[in-house]
From TrEMBL:
<dbReference type="InterPro" id="IPR047057">
    <property type="entry name" value="MerR_fam"/>
</dbReference>
<keyword id="KW-0238">DNA-binding</keyword>
<dbReference type="InterPro" id="IPR000551">
    <property type="entry name" value="MerR-type_HTH_dom"/>
</dbReference>
<dbReference type="GO" id="GO:0003677">
    <property type="term" value="F:DNA binding"/>
</dbReference>
<dbReference type="Pfam" id="PF13411">
    <property type="entry name" value="MerR_1"/>
</dbReference>
<dbReference type="InterPro" id="IPR009061">
    <property type="entry name" value="DNA-bd_dom_put_sf"/>
</dbReference>
<feature type="domain" description="HTH merR-type">
    <location>
        <begin position="1"/>
        <end position="69"/>
    </location>
</feature>
<dbReference type="GO" id="GO:0003700">
    <property type="term" value="F:DNA-binding transcription factor activity"/>
</dbReference>
<protein>
    <submittedName>
        <fullName>Transcriptional regulator, MerR family</fullName>
    </submittedName>
</protein>
């Protein structure tokens, strides 16, 4: 599939796909005789994983580090596992903090609802 098809499939704009390729985030994208990129299902799976890492707050710098390790093969499995374990730990901490924020926000909403229902006065 070409860049346009690929970008639609993975939900990125073509400029972002080209940028990711130029920065080395995509792994050896096949090129047609005319020089145009040709993406495979393997590329779709990889970029979906990259997007998941990005969506969970991993920096592009760390994603590039992971991609670089991945390109080196199975001798980097321990390093990749450690990088993902560190990200997982950071994400768990972030989720815990966000849960506390949500709890406090809902308490405030409940307080306002009680005032609107006439159960309490906020004056």
């Amino acid at each position: 599939m070409n860049v346009t098809e690929f970008s639609k499939r993975v939900g990125l704009n073509p400029h972002t796909v080209r940028y990711y390729d130029k920065m080395g985030l995509l792994d050896d994208i096949h090129r047609l005789a005319n020089g145009h990129r040709s993406f495979s299902e393997k590329d779709v799976v990889w970029i979906e994983f990259v997007q998941r890492l990005k969506d969970t707050g991993m920096s592009l710098e760390k994603i590039l580090e992971y991609a670089s390790l991945r390109k080196k093969g199975s001798q980097t499995l321990a390093q990749r596992k450690e990088l993902l374990a560190e990200h997982s730990s950071n994400l768990k901490q972030k989720i815990s903090i966000e849960k506390q924020h949500l709890k406090k926000l809902n308490e405030k909403i409940d307080l306002y609802q009680s005032a609107l229902d006439g159960k309490i006065s906020l004056d």
